[in-house]
Amino acid sequence: MEHAQRHELVDEFVGLFRADAIWTTGGGRRLFGRDEIVAFTRQVLPGGRKGLRCTMDSNTDGVPREDEGEGTPLFVMSQEDGQWRLVACQNTTVLS
Prior knowledge:
The chain has helices at residues 2-6, 10-14, 34-44; strands spanning 17-24, 30-32, 74-80, 83-90. It has three helices and four strands. Strand 1 (17-24) and strand 2 form a beta hairpin. The longest helix has 11 residues, at 34-44.
């Protein structure tokens, strides 16, 4: 997830999802199924990360960084054909 978003790799990103996945975007939009996830991602990911850094690392001190927004990611996965796929996910922004 981190690698695909950081490098704006649409196909790699959407390949992480199961066909019937549900994804709630950082802006709160719910997408149902890989087809909707693909359509949305193709519109927003290329160029959408300019000046931003995606990381799934947690701060060890628990203090949010002032120069970056914080999200509340949740990823539910299942194994399909020997691969772990995203099934139900959200990454809505934390409002301060």
